[in-house]
Amino acid sequence: MRLGIEQIRSILPQREPFLFIDEVIEIDGTNKVVAVRDIRGDEDFFKGHFPNRPIMPGVLIIEALAQTAIILYSVCKLDIARTNPDYYLGRVKAEFLSPVVPGDRLILEANNVKITDEAGIADAQARVGDRIVAKASLVFGIKPREISQ
Question: At 15, phi and psi to the nearest 5?
Answer without folding.
Answer: -135, 165
